Amino acid sequence: MKTKIVQKQFRRQESKYIVEKSVFTQLERELREHMVADDYAKSSITTIYFDNDQFGMIQDALAKKYGREKVRMRVYDRKPSAESQAFLEIKKKENKVGFKYRLTSTPVAVMNYIENDIQDATIADEKVTSELATLRKRYGQMKPKMYISYDRVSFKGKEDKKVRLTVDQNLLYRDHQVDVMLGKYGSALLDPDKVIMEIKVPDEQPAWLIVLLEKYQIEKQSFSKYGNAYRLAQQNQ
To answer: Please, which pLDDT band fits residue 93 given cuts at 50, 70 and 90?
Structure first.
């Protein structure tokens, strides 16, 4: 089992960009003057999003209601198993600032907690459990409703390591057989010639990064992986 040393809580500004692969190849050469590979530079990420049967949480998030919360389980093993390290995460936004709270467990323990409210010793983070209790009151019973997987490359700033940039590609989704251990398959969530670039900073983006974004005419875009997967799944139905 791959083990990541993790931070439990985050507060940061997050900006997303949809970029042509050919453009990112050029940008990457200049990024490397200011950034280096992150501690976990390459990863294969599998994410399960939890919601109620009516998809109430993602509908509210798309409508920008409440804190636009998302509840998810994320696994970084290329072939997840029952013993894999799994992160239960709650994401929300307040005044355009993103917050993330998470605890470290296993897929089985997370599923038992979300679906049956059974807690083992790993489900012990007070902030995560209190946030989830609030969401349960609003949305009721939660279940695994969407599978999304992708490959990620991560960078961090040379001077300020809190400046992070991630690039996601090969995105797949499915709204059936939503289980991390059933393999990596599904429908394409994004044009295969494009990537999702996300910049995460504590406050403002550094000047050198702003200059590069302007040079390559890369503009901020809104792209919710779960939101877009939900829309596509509804269209296909």
So the answer is: confident
